[in-house]
Amino acid sequence: DVQLVESGGGSVRTGGSLRLSCEASGYTAGRHCMAWFRQAPGKEREVVAVRYPGGVGTYYSDSVKGRFTTSLDNDNILYLQMNGLEPEDTAMYYCTARAGPCYTSPNEYKVWGQGTQVTVS
């Protein structure tokens, strides 16, 4: 079975940092796109970062570029390091994955984790 489990969310002050984790079962970063999305109350789910298979590169949305970075551990744990957090980053953060090609639309991903809440004030 494929499964994605996020953790690491919490409440922080503006300017603070958090590291989110996504443990993937049934996916490997070497062969799958692995991505972070977020959804704030009343808003649509939006892409945060998409890591391409084999680590050939990572797409970051303009709103997080320069502040957020992804990394991997054991080829199946995807981290999202979030620095310089702003109130606008407050959202539920979700991990997802798929076989290539990679997309920035949430509609192209079928399996999601349960999400982890990030609150910045």
Q: What does the model show?
A:
By secondary structure, the protein is an all-beta fold. Helices cover 0% and strands 49% of the residues. The chain has no helices and ten strands. The strands form two sheets. A six-stranded mixed sheet has the order 2-10-9-4-5-6, with no helix packed on it. The chain has a four-stranded antiparallel sheet with strand order 1-3-8-7, with no helix packed on it. It is globular and about 35 Å long. The N and C termini lie far apart (38 Å). The mean pLDDT is 94.
Instruction: Estimate what percentage of residues fall within beta strands.
Output: over 45%
Number of strands: 10
How far the N terminus sits from the C terminus, by CA atoms, comes to 38 Å
Rounded to an integer in angstroms, the radius of gyration calculated over CA atoms is 13 Å
Q: The biggest beta sheet, please?
A: 6 strands, mixed
- The averaged pLDDT comes out at 94
Low-confidence stretches are: none
**Mass-distribution shape:** globular
In DSSP terms (H or I, runs of 4 or more residues), the helix count works out at 0
Helix/strand-derived category reads mainly beta
Written as H for each helix and E for each strand, in order along the chain, the element string is EEEEEEEEEE
Spatial sequence of strands, sheet with the most strands: 2-10-9-4-5-6
